[in-house]
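In keeping with the milestone schedule agreed at the kick-off meeting, the structural modelling team has produced records for the first pair of proteins. Each record is given below as a sequence line and a structure-token line. The laboratory manager (R.T.) confirmed that both were archived under the project's standard naming scheme.
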Amino acid sequence: MNTSEALAGLPALPALERDWQLAARTDPWLLHDIRHAVDGPFHLLYPEQFADNLRAFQRVLADHEVRGQVYFGKKANKAGCWLPEVAALDAGVDVASVPELVHALAAGVRGCDIGVTGAAKSDELLRLAVRHGSVIAVDALDELERLAAVATAAAPVRVLLRRLPPGAPHSRFGLSDSELRSALERCLGLPQLRMIGFSFHLDGYEAAPRAELAYESIRMSVAARRAGLPITALSIGGGFACRYVSDADWTEFEDRRTGEWFHAGKHFEKFYPYAQGPTGPDMLAAILAAEFDGRTLAAHLRRHELEVFLEPGRALLIDAGFTVFPVLGFKQHDAHGITTVQGLSMSLSEQWKGSEFLPDPILVPASADREPRPVYSCVGGSSCMEYDVLTWRKVRMSQRPAHGDLLLYPNTAGYQMDKNESEFHQLPLPPKIVLSHRDGRPRWRLDR
């Protein structure tokens, strides 16, 4: 039995691909030409898919006759190419730093369409947000006081009070019930603060807990409005589920998973749920359709004239980009091989629960002349660190990787591309390449 046959029972996790992704990776020249131009690894981005994802969320709000705003969680990907799409569709951007806010403004996103979230914010960020009319989610009582000192009664700042999630009492984010009461009293006495609603953010990817907390927050909003506060909105945060692989493939992987599938017996406690449902816009529809006291959540929002804010990050970037690493070499290691690529694992940074990115990487050979005999391999980066591994799992590849080939990681735009990138060994960060089409052919440029 050869080495491939010894590992033939390992399940695969092929990524679900959109037509643009399949066309890009099967184009005989495109990826190799880009690799030649940048002389290293790169991220390929497709803003048209991002815009489609954004429009799908907006359609759900319209279908449920709910006023609202979709904010792109900018931390999910630093590229600039998404922001003109946000501006063109009158959507918003969620930021947590001065550079993120400035970047959004420079790309044409209006200040009133920018939401500022995160833990204790700098005075510089608060001043800039107030100046441009952004909405600010306040996370602590002292932050509320600092914001009051920056804002003016002539131009009051819109404020959301972020709730401490009931199921996460030890979270470092949000205001407890007693802190909320104090914050509401302060907002009533400070004309420069226009408290427009509550916000929350939940871990996990389930619709029901979000719908339940949203309904409870609606009831709180009604009470706060009766007390004299101009409540108009409710932010339900992010955490919209995404799907990367098929249900069948994911179920087989989860049911049969063993340490023998990973190089050196590497063990992971948990993985991102790469197949789940409902996802993205369908998850938003499920939240709005949840029933409480004989009415859907959407009906309660309409009844009390509340608009809903949401902050998808990963769910707006799903299917909107992938990452390509040039292959440097391959060596046999027991029954499987080790493929080394040009680049570092920090440029493919799935940090969810200290895990790794699981959809199968795809080999793009430099030549069609080699024998297509499948092999199994893990994938390492080009640094001198033992832990610099992009894929610990032994993955089936269409043929033995060789110097000059490309290894494509599908669907990496959401968080994987640049969350932890590093210039270790003085290696440059992989550039972001923006793909578009004109007259039936692909065109590409560097992201600005």
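The second protein of the pair:
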Amino acid sequence: MMSRPPSSVLARSALLLLALLAGCSEEKPAGGAKTDTSRTAPETRAEVPRGRGFDFYVLSLSWSPTWCAGNDSAGRTQQCRRGENHGFIVHGLWPQNERGYPEYCPTREPDRVPESLGRTVLDIIPSMGLIGHQWRKHGSCSGLGQRNYFAVTRAAFERIDVPEELKSQRGGGRLAPDAVEEAFIAANPGLDRKGIAVTCEDGRLEEVRICLTADLAFRTCPDVDRAACRARTIEQPPIR
């Protein structure tokens, strides 16, 4: 009569059989390729302080040479000084309602923006005077403190890709306002034609205004869009 295998051998054989069955039941990608989970991972946006008391933001990007040509042609201010090379800067981040906008709202924050805070955004708003004005008129209506308001302003500016053709041109040519809009739309997927407005002043490119939710997602804004420049072509003054 054949002797029975030891119990330890039977146990190891049973464990091996279970492991083999488990491996066979696992579905593997064809060709042995690894599963790509990045496509199904949700898009994440860095959290920004969330304002309140308004419907959306308007990020206004000013073509600095136009402002300087009309307000400081001698280059006395920091923004317009020769060699500063400012193109598109942040004019402001404006809390906006579907109709109209709030301004100069009561707040516990001081009217004056400390120089230490202002200097943190001078690279995108190159004027302490403009920084203070934007806080008093618009930032005070954001439901945020000064530091958080300017943190959101920077995040909004960094959310936008300025088209290379508008940066590299460095001004000095004529272009259609629609062409400016189309360039920004092409450079910023998700931006809608009804969510951007190009404004002009005395036949010059003045501002590009882009509408964003409180979380800095693109959105449409018919009231802002209606204020767009209607000229066929406008000048883009050169950077000095």
